[in-house]
Amino acid sequence: MNLQLETVHYETEYGDYDCEINALIYWLRHEGIEYDSLLRNNWDFRFDSLNDTFKGTIPLKDQLKHLELHNQMNYSIRQPNELADESRLIVALDAFSLPYAQEHFRTRNQIHYTPVYYINRELIEITDPIFKKRFFINGDELTEYWGHFREPIIEIHCIGTSQVEKPAEVYILQQDLDNYYLGHVNQLQKRITAFLSTNESLRSLHEFKRYYSLFNGMLVAREVFLRKWGLMDAHEEVVHKWKKLMKTWMGICVNPERNTPVFQRNLVELADYEVEFLRKLRL
Q1: Nearest alpha-carbon partner for 252 in 260, 244, 242
Q2: Mean pLDDT over all residues of the chain?
Q3: Contact by Cβ (8 Å): 25, 35
Q4: d(CA 177, CA 179)
Q5: Cα separations (Å) of 265 from 192, 200, 217, 270, 271?
Q6: pLDDT tens track for 194-204
Q7: Model's pTM, two decimal places?
Q8: 87 DSSP β-pair partners
Q9: Per residue in 14-40, pLDDT tens?
Q10: CB contact set of 144 (below 8 Å; sequence gap of 6+)
């Protein structure tokens, strides 16, 4: 498919692998809706084994639930044959089918959420805020892009009332922190151990760089959360520990035998520190 790409000037709040919330914020900005409460709710520590991603932002369904609860927007779940003209959508595309995203992801069938403006069946506008690209397709082409993952299409209905939430409503504070963090640390440790057992040059591995991007996405998510709660100065150590983890990850390239166990210890130390930080936030 030969796409005619336009460049758009757009700054995202979150990292390259947090496409769900970046797509959602695109529409909130477009409609002029304040979304600080969403940013103050967005703290997670989640390894997604299905998509092999590590997330610092909460699942899309919980982002939508939060906005609906606070009367900021409603949404509907659609299939491709149910789309109405002039509808604002969030659609899970296959990133590997997007020419401009192939070099970045290099992973076939990488799920990638984007804002979609369904003008009519013959003219559909897709704006990718992460890659800063815009292009137009038709209904058959949208179905083709959507067809691999077949995730429900989200239609956004904006309202715009804003409410300020309390710390107790933060998503992560509703979890059993010790077990939640322990479970995801264990899953991530197993995945990384398997990954590092490869005999190929780590520096040349796309997956190694991809994990660095995932860790950077966690760092960005923490910075957004702390900044929105006015906690950055008092709790800069959270950010420091993510930077330390990323530095150790890069050190594995130089000396895997020495730095792999250091990375594993730093990950556990970071998780323990965040659990204690969150316990204090509950008070």
Answers
A1: 260
A2: 90
A3: yes
A4: 6
A5: 13, 24, 20, 9, 10
A6: 888 876 666 56
A7: 0.92
A8: 118
A9: 999 999 999 999 999 999 888 999 999
A10: 1, 97
